[in-house]
Amino acid sequence: MWDAVQIGPFLLKMSTLAVIVSIATGFLAITFLVKKDRATRGALTELLSNAVLLGFLVWKFSYALFHLDQVVQNPSSLLYFSGGERGAWLAALAVLVYFSLRLRKKSVPVDLVAWAVATGSLAATGMYQLLTVLLEQSGFLYHVQQIVLCLLFLVWLQRAQKQLNELAVWLMLLMWFAIGQVYVQFYVQPREAAFAGLSSEQLVYYGCALLLLFLSRRMTKRKGENADEV
Questions:
Q1: Residues 6+ apart with CB under 8 A from 175
Q2: Rounded to whole angstroms, how far apart are CA atoms 1 and 32?
Q3: How confident is the model at residue 126, as a pLDDT?
Q4: Phi and psi (nearest 5°) for 49?
Q5: Where does the chain show beta strands of DSSP type E?
Q6: How do beta strands 4-7 and 10-13 pair?
Q7: What's the pLDDT score for residue 148?
Q8: For 22, what's the count of Cα atoms within 13 Å in the CB-facing half-sphere?
Q9: I need a surface site. Which of 86, 104, 114, 160 has the fewest CB within 10 A?
């Protein structure tokens, strides 16, 4: 079970500490793997740092948005609780809006930002899954397979880095990641089948994989037609 640690006058949940450690791991992975000049690296680091800080604050303090009555009764609950899954989606939306506004003003290639976000996210997710295994000591097979998936896709990202300026490559990568999630979700306990032996989460991932496959094939076909015209 998740526990809490006392840091001075504050009580910090281990789940929040795990998120902080995971984010730091993501940044270390980006710093270690990025191979660009100092100016580009600095701009990329600043952009991602602001995005992560924004996302973390929105996720953490969105608890007040979803549980305003409890925060009014006990303001210190903001330090202990977070917005949970709904807060995570809200944080992702905030970061997406931030990227759309800031990328126009930054001299950082979009494909490099996408690569850095994907690399950092996979490293952070892998670390979070590892910490979850160590702290909760449950769902071992599920979390270990998630770690393996993260490692595999990190390697894929590094080998395909020169081709990541093509959208079709990203679509294929996301498609296989979604397929991997369909498989891994079989090890979630308890798991309730919704249709054809698949849970609702698996159906969502399966639908995303089919959509990504359709888009990828359509882009490849269009690219081939344009090459024939030339």
A1: 208, 209, 212, 213, 216
A2: 33
A3: 92
A4: -60, -45
A5: 4-7, 10-13
A6: antiparallel
A7: 93
A8: 21
A9: 104
Tokens of 165: 């300026």
Q: Read off the tokens for 69.
A: 């009555």
Per-residue pLDDT at 151: 93
Q: What are phi and psi of 12, to 5 degrees?
A: -110, 125
Q: Which residues of the chain have pLDDT under 70?
A: 1-13, 35-39, 77-80, 106-107, 223-230
Q: Distance of CA 38 to CAs 35, 41, 42, 79, 183, Å?
A: 9, 5, 6, 37, 41
What span, in angstroms and rounded, lies between the C-alpha atoms of 219 and 222? 5
pTM to 2 decimal places: 0.78
Phi-psi map region of 34: left, alpha, beta (phi>0 left; psi -120 to 50 alpha): beta
The confidence score (pLDDT) of residue 1 equals 44
pLDDT of residue 229: 58
Residue 15 near residue 2 (C-beta atoms within 8 A): yes
